[in-house]
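Team,

Forwarding the record for the chain on the shared tracking sheet. I've put the sequence and predicted structure together so nobody has to dig through attachments.
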Amino acid sequence: MAEGVSSASHRNGPVRLRVLPRGETPFSEWNDEELMLEHARGTEAAFEELVRRHQKSVLNYTYRMVQNRQIAEELTQEVFLALVQNAQRYQPLAKFTTYLYAIASNIVSKEWARRKRRPALFSLSSWAFWKDPDDAFDPLEHVSDAKPNAASDCTRTEVSEAVNKALRAVPDQYREAFILHRMQDLSYEEVSEITNAPIGTVKSRVVRAERALRPLLESFRDHV
């Protein structure tokens, strides 16, 4: 039976590789690093599983950073296109999410520099999994009250608009650190790697963002 190389992630060092029998375990049970390595071997289904897992969170990140849904969708497509283009160079030396958001952060930075004139981007819309209704965009993911049905649709929309407006008032570097840590649930160590900033600087940026956001969202404190 053919075998594929897979990985077990390790936060403090290179990921150790192990042999995984191909065909015995569905891709839904593989970890991200395994899937990326299998994608590099030319398996499209492995890439589709990565997109299924991460497209919503990457879209939420790009939307919060650029505050424009259409641009966020295009940047999200660009992020996953970069995974395709860099597949052969991928090395599982860190968590896949760190690698993924480092790409996303770089693409967002480029977007800020090219806002007035943007090139056409490669479209991933032909893949059916991109339109999965279960992956509907939710700008309040990781932000709203965790209790189910905590707010009406009207209140939810109002809170969403308030959060987005408040984020626009936060300087870019503080906003990014806050979004990655508080909204995308990444550790300070991961954010440090993604943004190429010392951990102490990352923590300071998150605190400064929280201080800037707190008065702007005071009236929504029960939902945020």
